[in-house]
Amino acid sequence: MTLITLVRHGQTDWNLDRRIQGSTDIPLNETGRGHALEAAAALAGGTHHAIYASPLVRAHETARIIAGEIGLGEPELVSDLREREFGEAEGMLVADYISTYGDWHADVPGAETFDQVRDRALGALDIIARSSRRRSAPVAESVIVVAHGGVIRSLLDHASGGTMPLMGVPLANGSVHRFEASPGVLRLLETVPVQ
Predict the structure, then answer these.
(1) Cα–Cα distance measured from residue 8 to residue 129, given in angstroms and rounded to the nearest whole number
(2) What's the CA gap between 10 and 35, in Å, rounded?
(3) Is-contact 80 124, C-beta < 8 A?
């Protein structure tokens, strides 16, 4: 068994503007760096053995801040943790996206589907969990994974059987979600409020 703590990256200027980032590589803003520090404070009381992150700069920088605050090494970058590719909708304001496409599951030219995002994210977590079980057996390892709202939303949806999170309710930047991963199973343990 591996304990996986998923953290959403800190805020960017595009988050603030309610603009779809997708795979566009937008950096954290100062508020986002504060979110990373808040997430680190929420994680500081636990034991963590490794940290992983999406290669997009907003997630990678969040992970580096967390790692520095709680004494972990450099985050390992995992390509399949990157945010959903939104195709021609990248850069659109959320309100314009909803007006144009109707909902988040719409067929957008060049965009990944929600299921594709979930499947690649589950595959990435499976590889992380298998690697940690080899390193730490028989003791459960605890790892931190810094990713994106769409990725975390797809994993919450999967682990909760479609009951979480509610459609239209955004995941907060810097939010923390704890899971237990064992072969073929991802179980949500808790969502930790971050101030």
Answers:
(1) 19
(2) 5
(3) yes
Catalytic residue among 9, 48, 148, 177: 9
Q: What is the pLDDT of residue 44?
A: 94
- Yes or no: say if 107 and 89 are a contact pair by the CB < 8 Å rule: no
Q: Residue 169: what pLDDT?
A: 77
Tokens representing 30? Answer: 């100062």
In angstroms and rounded to an integer, the radius of gyration of the C-alpha atoms of the chain is 16
Confirm if 189 and 179 have CB atoms less than 8 A apart: yes
Which residue of the set 38, 83, 85, 112 is catalytic? Answer: 83
Identify which of 53, 76, 60 has the alpha carbon closest to the alpha carbon of residue 6. Answer: 53
Predicted confidence (pLDDT) per residue in 29-69, tens digit:
999 999 999 999 999 989 999 999 999 999 999 999 999 99
Q: What number of other Cβ atoms are within 10 A of residue 33's Cβ? A: 16
Whether residue 9 lies in the annotated active site: yes
Asked if 36 contacts 174 with a C-beta cutoff of 8 angstroms, the reply is yes
CA distances (Å), origin 189, targets 24, 102, 173, 181: 31, 32, 19, 10
60 in active site:
no
- What was the pLDDT predicted at 167? 72
What H or E segment, with its residue span, contains residue 58?
A: helix 57-70
- DSSP state letter for 140: P
